[in-house]
Structures are given as C-alpha cells and as structure tokens.
Write a structure and sequence with these properties.
The structure holds two protein chains of two kinds. Chain A is of the alpha/beta class. Chain A has 17 helices and twelve strands. Chain B has helices at 4-14, 26-37, 42-52, 56-65, 85-89, 92-103, 146-155, and strands spanning 77-82, 116-121, 133-135, 139-141. In chain B, a hairpin with a 3-residue loop joins strand 3 and strand 4. The chains are: A alpha/beta, B alpha+beta.
Chain lengths: 438, 157
C-alpha cells in the first residue's frame, strides 16, 4: 500500500529553509521513493549498521541546539539523556502529533507531506534510547492524514526500515499510529500516555516523569513531531549545521503556522531568528490592506502582543521572550484592527473551559468562572470590578494545577487585559464593543 | 453484536499493543463501531467493552471524555463547524448562521428528515484552512464560504 499522493496546499516556498518539510519541493512529497531520493533512511542505516554510539548521537542533538517543538522548548538532547540506559523490559518512544492548541497546524503537514522523515527520526531515536516500541499519537480530527501516516508506516515496514531485525543487525523497532478522538488535553504528554493506554486523558502528577514511568508504566521518551523529524537532517548535516541555521539558544529552522487575518495563511518553515516583519510579509501581510492590531505568537497559551511589540520581535525563543511572550509551538494568530479583543477573549476562555479535563479544582472551576465573567461583559452585564476579579481568578489557577492547562487558560486573560484594558473598560461602561459597536 | 468487519478492524488495532493490554484499543474500537453505526448507543459501548474484556465503565469513561464520540444520533451527516479563534477571525460565524438558515436547525439539532446535524467544534488543528467544516469526523473541508456550504449541501445526498 503506497502513501496516498496528496497534492500539497503549499505556501510560497521562496525564502523558506526546509528541514522538516524538505520533500515539499518534490512532485509526490509523501512517497517513500521521494524521501529516499533526498537521502532518506540513509542515516538510520548508517547508525544501525555502523553501531554508532548513543552518546555520539545525543551529543550531535545537543550541539544542534534543537529544543522541543511542541511548545515547551526543552532541549531535546538533554531530554534524551534522561532515559535510563539499562532497563530490563520494553522502553517506549512516543510522538506527540496531537495538535489542538488553536492556531497550531504544523505537524499535520509533516505527517501528510513528509511522513517518512518522521518515521526515520523516530527509528533513530529508538536506536539511541533503546526503545523497542513507538507510538505516534495523532489528533482526532485529521482522519485523512492519519490514514496517510498509516500507509507510510506500512511502506516503511515493507522496506525494512521499521520492524524486526533491521538491516540484519538484530535491532528491532515497531512503530504504530494511534488516533486521538477530540481532547485538547491529550497534547499534554502524560494525558497523551493515559490516552494511549485507553483511559480518559487526565494528566499524571509529575514526578515521576515519563522517562521513568511512561506508557504502561515503562520508561518512555515523548517528543513533538517536528522535533523527531529534525533528527535525520541533524545527523546528515551535523549538529553544528543545524545550530548555524538559527541563532544562539534557538538552533535550526522552525515551522511557523500563520493563521487569522493574513492574505496567505499557512505553514512557513524559516530560520530561527527571522524578524516577524519578514514572516508577515511572506504570509502576504495583513489581509484586505488593514492594519495589524495584535498577534498571539505561540498559540493562546502564550501572551498576546500588540502590533508594535511583535513588529520589532524576532522569531526565536529569546526574541519572543524579550517581547513579553513566548515562542510556544510557533502558532502565529494574526489579528487586524477590526478585531474586538473582548469577544476574541470570550472565545478563547470558552475553549479552555470546554477543554479542562476536570481533574484539578482551580482549573475545572476557575476556567468556568473566567468564561462566565467575560461572557457577562460581552452580554452587557459587566461590572468594572470584573477586571480585577478576572485577574484574581487567573492568579489562583496559575501554578495550582497538575498540568500546564491551568496556566495556559490564565495567560490569554491576563495578557489581553494588560495590553487592551481600555477596550474592556469601554465594553463594561457602554455594554458594547469599542471596535465593532455591537 | 459487533460485525465481522468491525472485529477485523479492532483486531488490527489490538496488534499495536502488548497482548495483555486490551484496554489500549478501546478508543479505536469505539471509533470503529461509531463509524459503522453512526453513533454510540449504550449497547454499542457495552459490546465494545465485552469484546475487549474490560469493565463497561472503562469504555463509558472514554466514550464520555472525548468529544468526537456521539452518544446520541447525529443524522446521516454530522457537520461540525470550528468556531475557535483562527476560524472565528476568518468568518466562522457567517458559516454557522448560513448553515442554520439553510437547514433550519441550531447546534446539536437534527433536520426533520434525519439528514443533517449541526455541531460546534473546538480547534481541529487545520487553522491554515480556516474557516473549517468537518463532515462525519472524517472529511475536512477548508476555506469555507457560504457558496461552498451550498455546494457541499448539494453534494451530500
């Protein structure tokens, strides 16, 4: 069964530095033959047949400066070194393709346009960490892309790149696709592990971390799709070459998902450290000739930035941190000057309320309170003290929950009010939006 | 009773996990049965639990936690419109009101002929193609406009 030839819905590749989406330049990007024509699976073959030492591979990943692409930005090489070297039993490898953070849609393009590079990256990680079995957990809504990935797995298995006794060396690695079914929280690694085991996706208390207690209670390494997919390129060109693509502290290129009010929404894989202004220009600028108002740079769990702050920022971990937000998963939600921030926040707070798993009281109750207070402002029933109330509730969610969803729910509320307070005050005083008058 | 076809698919899913971890396949088993029957009745959920040899409550917990499982009938075509931020910024409200006008139903309602059901969805992870409309959990339609909604409604016989 060959991977289905999906005609890419592409952004203009000019100015992009393709690492994880490098097959996009080719005619049939998802096909095994396409990936092999670019040197695909040669790194896997080399390290397995030449028995390259795990420490050497981990060292290359450390040199590359690759940081977790799922949002947390934790150095991948360091994470890999947490996996126990010796363990009497099966170790697991997990890939997180559960993109549910609004504005995030990069990993979808990897599994539908370049699935084999992800498979090779996971197989290399499995060899390095001694994992025998891997799972790629894929977001529920992207059924067609899940099937593309299943087909790619079958192709790789048939070609002998995953499965038993790879390259006749005795090393075996089985990799499977797992399909989520609609829960944002499963993007959190321990909730995802619970979901693989067939449970409700409620995060586990950490420690123990997955490296010691993961899938079925066994040592497990969890990385994001884009992180694994960077690995074959890093081994092919060397860790330093990857680091050199970016800027200090932010190695490589990275996919930025641009959505919202731009002329050409889509994924742009560009060098870390690229000015936001350049990325916005690549995405065709703000649509309809309007002015930029604000950008949420890393998905709603990162702080919103007003136009002046984002326009002078660079797209890397330190650049966005200096601007007062964070890179997150690189999910840029662009808003033009017709956007009512109060209504936008109402929608975001509903999302976190809806998606709270209900395990921790501050998040379960707090997200509901936040939503109801913002809703009453939008319904014209707001009170001036509501803004302090919202801040207070958010401060009582942040840092008081098992997982980061609590903090994620608080961040948009605090940052929207901080940067756009007059809009909220106007809405409360007049019972309607300062922006659209409704 | 689970169909032979469903059992074949569930057995494939079970090959992904250690033999003693049958519960791991519950999510896909529920999905397989839902795709075959349109929605998950209490009876369907018990059949899945029984086949996997897990407590019924374990299957229930999963069926009620993940929002793509339908525990009530959803008509022949379930149309889920994402209204989250990226879709909202690109006009999902207009898609919703157009669908509501055309079909004469609100969210979580089914047309009298049993053909369409309308749902509000959370982020589907395809925001570059906003606004999005998802048909029966499997068919992602991107860059929706009222005109494309009309075409889609004609296409879905």
């Amino acid at each position: 069964m060959a991977a289905k030839a999906t005609k890419p819905v592409m952004t203009d590749l000019k100015g992009q530095t393709l690492v994880t989406l490098r097959t996009l330049k080719e005619k049939n990007p998802a096909a095994l033959s396409t990936y092999q024509s670019l040197g695909g699976y040669e790194q896997l073959k080399r390290i397995i047949t030449e028995k390259v030492k795990a420490t050497e591979i981990i060292n290359q990943v450390k040199v590359s400066g690759l940081r977790g692409r799922g949002g947390a930005g934790f150095p991948t090489g360091l994470k890999w070194s947490f996996m126990p070297r010796y363990f009497d039993g099966t170790k697991y490898l997990v890939c997180n393709t559960d993109e549910g953070e609004p504005g995030t849609f990069k990993d979808r393009d990897i599994i539908r346009y370049n699935p084999h590079q992800l498979i090779e990256g996971m197989a290399i990680a499995a060899y390095t960490l001694g994992a025998r079995v891997g799972y790629n957990y894929i977001h529920g809504e992207i059924w067609q892309d899940y099937q593309t990935f299943e087909a790619a797995l079958a192709e790789a298995r048939e070609a002998g790149f995953i499965g038993e006794n790879l390259f006749g060396t005795g090393f075996s690695f089985d990799l499977y696709a797992v399909h989520g079914y609609g829960a944002y929280i499963c993007g959190e690694e321990t909730a995802l592990i619970e979901s693989i085991e067939g449970n409700k996706g409620q995060p586990r208390f950490k420690p123990p971390f997955p490296a010691s207690y993961g899938v079925f209670g066994k040592p497990t390494n969890v990385n994001n799709t884009e992180s694994y997919t960077s690995i074959p390129w890093i081994l092919q060109h060397g860790g330093q070459a990857f680091a050199d693509l970016g800027v200090p502290n932010s190695g490589g290129s990275k996919i930025f998902s641009v959505s919202g009010h731009v002329e050409k929404p889509g994924n742009y894989e560009i060098k870390m450290g690229t000015p936001f202004a350049d990325l916005l220009a690549m995405a065709g600028g703000v649509w309809k000739g309007r002015k930029l108002k604000a950008v949420i740079p890393g998905g709603p769990s990162t702080a919103v930035l007003p136009a002046d702050k984002i326009m002078s920022a660079t797209m890397d971990y330190d650049g966005l941190s200096k601007a007062g937000s964070s890179l997150g998963a690189g999910s840029m939600i662009v808003m033009d000057d017709t956007t009512c921030m109060v209504k936008a926040l109402k929608r975001l707070s509903y999302f976190f309320y809806e998606e709270s798993c209900g395990q921790c009281t501050p998040c379960r109750e707090g997200t509901g309170w936040v939503y109801r207070v913002i809703k009453r402002i939008v319904d014209g029933q707001g009170r001036m003290e509501d803004l302090d109330l919202l801040t207070d509730v958010c401060n009582n969610i942040s840092g008081r929950t098992i997982c980061a969803l609590g903090d994620a729910a608080a961040t948009p509320v605090l940052s929207f009010i901080k940067h756009f307070r007059p809009e909220f005050e106007y809405y409360i005083q007049h019972g309607k939006s300062m922006i659209d008058g409704k | 009773m689970l169909s032979a076809e469903a059992i074949k698919k569930i057995e494939y899913e079970l090959t992904k996990y250690p033999p003693e971890k049958r519960q791991a396949a519950v999510m896909s088993a529920l999905r397989i049965v839902q795709m075959e029957r349109g929605w998950l009745s209490q009876e369907s959920i018990s059949e899945v639990a029984e086949y996997l040899g897990i407590p019924e409550i374990a299957a229930m917990e999963v069926a009620t936690f993940y929002n793509m499982y339908d525990l009530e009938p959803v008509g022949k075509y379930k149309l889920t419109v994402c209204t989250n931020i990226s879709c909202m910024l690109r006009g999902s409200d207009e898609i919703v009101s157009h669908l509501q006008d055309k079909l004469g139903i609100g969210f979580n309602e089914i047309t009298p002929d049993g053909k369409f059901c309308l749902k509000e969805g959370e982020c589907m992870g395809c925001c570059g193609g906003a606004p999005l409309l998802h048909v029966n959990n499997t068919d992602m339609r991107e860059f929706m406009t009222p005109e494309k909604v009309d075409e889609l409604l004609k296409e879905l016989k």
